[in-house]
Design a protein that fits this description.
54% helix, elongated, Endonuclease III, domain 1, mainly alpha
């Protein structure tokens, strides 16, 4: 990891502090499996549908499916947003107090919502809540970064990611960030045998 830090430079986290936790989850669902530009366009259209002076969950539940689709959402994502709003309104998802829960309880709370899996919950903890000890073992970028930085022949499976990342605790978010940044380095940055300590 010392070699990685030397090549990448200082850790510069980027947290999403604006808006509410619910807003951040809406954004997360909209952005899934889309390029940044396309996702930003659809997200802005969705937000424009609603009155910012009225609670968003109530408005999403009241919105017609066709209206959500008209903003550019797929059928699935429109249903995911409605499910998120329903869980928030019935109290099964304590959206605005999620930051008070420990990591495992946050994952359990968020993954009851359709369209939010463990990876999405981990991204929320890392980039919304600023938790410093989260390791997204299913993340392909983290897997590729570990393969490159640790000079592995094969892409590591999630269990190997957890084993490797255990050394980074209690700053596994930081370690994950460095694995993403490794992929942005010039080709050949980690060629050759792994350096000895």
């Amino acid at each position: 990891m010392a070699e990685v830090i030397g090549k990448v430079g200082p850790f510069t986290p980027r947290a999403m502090a604006g808006g509410t936790h619910f807003d951040a989850l809406v954004r997360s669902i909209v952005y899934q499996q889309l390029s940044g530009k396309a996702a930003a366009t659809i997200h802005s259209r969705v937000i424009a549908l609603f009155d910012r002076d009225t609670a968003l969950p109530q408005q999403i539940v009241a919105a017609e499916h066709a209206v959500l689709r008209g903003a550019g959402l797929s059928n699935q994502k429109a249903s995911y947003l409605r499910n998120l709003a329903e869980h928030t309104l019935d109290g099964s998802l304590p959206t605005e107090s999620l930051h008070e829960l420990d990591d495992q309880r946050i994952i359990e709370a968020l993954t009851q919502v359709k369209g939010i899996g463990r990876w999405s919950a981990q991204m929320f903890m890392m980039f919304r809540l600023g938790r410093l000890d989260v390791l997204p073992d299913l993340d392909l970028g983290v897997q590729k970064g570990i393969q490159l930085a640790y000079r592995m022949r094969k892409l590591p499976k999630p269990a190997k990611v957890l084993e490797t990342g255990a050394k980074w605790a209690p700053y596994r978010t930081v370690g994950s960030w460095y694995m993403w940044r490794v992929l942005e380095l010039p080709p050949g940055s980690f060629v050759g045998p792994r350096p000895r300590p």
